[in-house]
Amino acid sequence: MSRFYLHGHGSAGLTAEYLNAWQTALESGDPQMALAHTVEVQNPAGRTTGLIVLPSHPMRVAWQSAYDELAYQMRFEEDMPPRRARRALGWFDAAQFPFILPGLVPGSYFVFGDVLGLSAVAMVPDRDREPKSAIATLAACFAGDSERSSPGLNSSSGDALAREVRNYLDSIRNARSCASMHYEQAMPLR
C-alpha cells in the first residue's frame, strides 16, 4: 500500500520509530532541524532560490503513513469497496506538507510553493518577489532540466543535484537510525 508504512509489516514499526525520533528531536531541538531532508538550491550568485523537500522529510513521511493507515482502515477493516475507498480518499492531498519551514536566517521562512513529481515539494523564501520563477527553477533542478528554465544554469547543474539527492538517499539506506526508509521494498498505493 505504501512506500513507507506497510501495514502488518516490520517496516511499520521502523517508520513509527523514525517518526517518534523526529518528533522528539523537533520538539526539543533547534528549529533548523526541520530543514533536514531538504536540498537548498542557489542561483549562480549564491543566493537561495528555495528548498526541495525530499520524500524522507519527517512531515512527508508522517503524512504518507497516516494516509496509508486510513486507506488500510477503510479498505480492509471497514471492508469498503475499492472504488468507494478511492473516491473517499480522493480529496486528501499531501501537497502542502510541510506548508512552512524555518528560513536560513532568523525571522525568515520557507513557504509551500508547489509539488515536484509525486513525492517532493518546492518551498520558496517568504519574501521572494518572484515565487513562480523560483518554483520553475526548483522544478527544473528536481527534474534535471535546468538548462531550459534558467539561463544561468546548465544541464550539469540538474545532474549535480540529482547526484547529491542520490548520494543522500544512499546514505539514508546505510544508516541504522533511518532503517525505516526501505525504498527497495516500496509498494505503491493502489
What does this structure look like?
The protein is α+β, with helices and mostly antiparallel strands. It has one domain. Helix content is 44%, strand content 15%. The chain is built from six helices and five strands; from the N terminus they run H-E-E-H-H-E-E-E-H-H-H. A five-stranded antiparallel β-sheet has the order 1-2-5-4-3, covered by helices on one side. A hairpin with a 3-residue loop joins strand 4 and strand 5. Helix 1 crosses helix 2, helix 2 runs antiparallel to helix 3 and helix 4 packs across helix 6. The longest helix is centred in the middle third of the chain and has 20 residues. The N and C termini lie close together (6 Å).
3D shape: globular
Quantity of strands, as a count: 5
Which spans have pLDDT < 50 for at least 5 consecutive residues? Answer: 146-151, 175-190
Helix percentage: 40-55%
Number of helices: 6
Rg, Cα atoms, Å = 18 Å
Overall pLDDT level: 80
H-E string: HEEHHEEEHHH
For the biggest β-sheet, the strand order reads 1-2-5-4-3
State the domain count: 1
**Helix vs. strand class:** alpha+beta
How can the largest sheet be summarized? Answer: 5 strands, antiparallel
Residues in β-strands, percent: 5-15%
Q: What is the straight-line distance between the termini?
A: 6 Å
Question: Layout of helices and strands, plus pairs?
Answer:
Elements (H helix, E strand, L loop, with lengths): L9 H19 L9 E5 L5 E6 L4 H20 L4 H8 L10 E3 L6 E8 L3 E6 L5 H13 L2 H4 L5 H20 L16
Antiparallel strand pairs: 1-2, 2-5, 3-4, 4-5
Helix pairs in contact: 1-2, 2-3, 4-6
